[in-house]
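Re: How this chain folds, sequence and tokenised backbone to follow
How to read it: Take the token row as a discrete description of the fold.
Start of record: The labelled sequence and token lines come straight after this line.
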Amino acid sequence: MSGKRRRRTYDKAFKYEAVRLVLEEGRSAAEVERNLGTGRGIVSRWVRELTEDQDHAFPGKGHFKPPEEEIHALKRELERVKRERDILKKAVAIFSTEPERYSGS
């Protein structure tokens, strides 16, 4: 068997509890990581994420924080508009090179 390790996911409640152990009970992040069996630096990152932005910490897999969500949606819309513009440019080029061919007369 190969040495591939499957990436573990943790739910929001698990992350909050791990952070609570560090912040409220005064345990070290390394100790909590060993006890919970998480990777090195994971709990430290969770503590940092929660302390930096309590309202939007741990948005979940495939989700962005609200400001990032808006940027992502605007980028998608910009790509769509660019595709539409390119199609219109091609249509104008086709109709302007041979106008009588497409006029129906």
Notes: Residues 64-105 form one domain. The chain has two domains: 9-62, 64-105. Residues 66-97 form the longest helix (32 residues). The chain has a mean pLDDT of 78.
